[in-house]
Design a protein that fits this description.
Elements: E1 2-9, E2 12-19, H1 21-36, H2 51-82, E3 91-93, H3 98-105, E4 111-118, E5 132-137, H4 142-155, E6 159-161, E7 172-181, E8 184-197, E9 219-225, E10 239-252, H5 259-264, H6 270-304, H7 311-331, H8 343-370, H9 377-389, H10 395-404, H11 406-428, E11 430-435, H12 438-442, H13 446-450
Parallel strand pairs: 5-11
Antiparallel strand pairs: 1-2, 2-4, 3-4, 6-10, 7-8, 7-10, 9-10
Length: about 450
């Protein structure tokens, strides 16, 4: 086998490989000899079929198998001899001319092909102990707990029938409705026994206001226009008419927030409910706090590591980002001019974001490898179980999907690995906890919005 380097430019490599016909023939004969003891042919005793006869019958198919194996061996040798870490699978370009291919298959010519590689860059890791960052923190206040309990109570407020009255804001109206656009009933526009609290702004803008004053068993036509940014693109911006019937009208009743109310929610007491609410709010604050600290950590890592990224990985990342951006803009019927930019400028910005993401991914992977940070099977299993819980009634199907789909399983493993590396780095870095207000904790920073 002869290997000649044709290109060494940045992270791209190209090689020409020549496999002599004699070498391929020798490998094919060795393979045929192995088959001799396994093949059963009429007229020959087991193990006594001449290799020459087998070659006449199976020579071309065996040689094709040998060529495929030899190409893989050549790729492996190139990678191992040069100590490459690949960014992508090798791209092999075999002869396309039919006559040339036939000559190789018939053993009359050497096999010559090219191998194109994209390799990972050598990464020199920075000094993580030199990273200093602020982590915003927020303690849960009694006021937050009280407000949340009140919202829970409001969401669970009992209602009493109001058969002789008219619906007002705050009343709950049970509706049946059928929606149409240009006289045609549309999918998803109908409902039966749908409860709606007037004034809650749960429905399309303008819908609830037109039901104020409706009486039980009364039918009204409600005319509305779907918002331009409506999630169902085929309805966005369209005018629709709904034939609405009020089947029941109920008014809210007084409710005391105490132990009895807490017991309706499965808690032993109001104090126990407050403790659970406080714990949940604390989890939300801590998650937000960590997200901001992680963003600042990633910014610091990006500043410590500047290197070229594999072009194909960057392009794939860009394609994913750009596809999401353009789909969202189309759904919202926006243009780049509406965003005060141009398509060319937006492409350049998102290209930088794609390269940053790839670079940080490579850095995190290198840190994990150098420090033996691994994701255990138990951690992946817990992630699958958690994912299955998100689909009540379909847990078994979700479990089987991940069990049989290695790529889907990897999509669960990757974020676990990333979080473990982030935990490791936050332990090394100097992290200053800075008390902030709720508004500050949940405010979207300009750099976070851009990223």
């Amino acid at each position: 086998m002869q290997v000649t380097e044709l290109l060494a430019e940045g992270l791209k490599r190209e090689y020409r490989v020549v496999l002599p016909a004699a070498e391929l023939d020798a490998k094919a004969n060795a393979r045929l000899s192995e088959l001799k003891d396994k093949v059963r042919l009429n007229g020959f005793r087991p193990g006594k079929v001449p290799v020459a006869h087998l070659k006449r019958m199976y020579g071309k198919s065996v040689l094709a198998e040998v060529i495929d194996q030899a190409v893989n061996e050549a790729n492996t040798k190139i990678i191992e001899d040069n100590g490459f870490k690949l960014a992508m699978q090798p791209k092999v370009e075999l002869p396309q001319d039919e006559a040339a291919v036939n000559e190789v298959i018939e053993g009359k010519a050497d096999l010559s092909f090219t191998v194109n590689l994209e390799v990972l860059p050598a990464i020199t890791l920075g000094d993580f102990k030199g990273i200093t960052l602020d982590k915003p923190v927020l303690a849960v206040s009694d006021e937050e707990v009280e407000e949340t309990v009140k919202r829970i109570a409001e969401a669970n407020r009992p209602y009493a029938a109001k058969p002789d009255g008219t619906a007002e804001n705050g009343d709950r109206v049970t509706l049946s409705f059928v929606g149409s656009i240009d006289g045609e009933v549309f999918e998803g526009g109908s409902g039966e026994d749908v409860p709606l609290v007037l004034g809650s702004n749960s429905f399309i803008p303008g819908f609830e206001e037109q039901l104020v004053g409706i009486k039980e068993d009364e039918t009204r036509t409600v005319n509305v226009t779907f918002p331009e940014a409506y999630q169902a693109a085929h309805l966005a911006g369209k005018a629709a008419a709904f034939e609405v019937t009020a089947k029941m009208i109920e008014s809210p009743t007084e409710m005391e927030i105490g132990d009895e109310f807490a017991k309706t929610l499965g808690m032993d007491s109001l104090e126990a409910l407050k403790e659970q609410v406080k714990s949940r709010i604390a989890q939300e604050h801590n998650a937000q706090s960590r997200n901001k600290a992680k963003r600042r950590l990633l910014d610091a890592l990006d500043g410590l590591h500047q290197f070229d990224v594999p072009p194909t990985l960057a392009q794939q990342e860009f394609d994913g980002i750009w596809g999401s951006v353009t789909a969202e803009m189309e759904n919202q019927k926006k243009t780049f001019a509406d965003e005060d930019t141009t398509e060319e400028a937006a492409r350049a910005d998102y290209q930088k974001i794609a390269e940053r993401r790839v670079r940080l991914g490579l850095v995190l992977a290198e840190i994990g490898e150098k420090n033996n940070i691994q994701v255990t099977d138990d951690e992946v299993t817990r992630a699958v179980v958690e994912r299955a819980r998100q689909f009540p009634g379909q847990e078994q199907q979700v479990w089987e999907f991940y069990r049989k789909n290695a790529q889907a399983l990897a999509s669960l493993r990757a974020p676990i690995f990333e979080e473990k590396v982030v935990d490791y780095l936050l332990e090394l870095a100097t992290v200053n906890e800075v008390p902030v207000s709720r508004e500050e904790l949940y405010a979207e920073d300009e750099d976070e919005k851009a990223a």
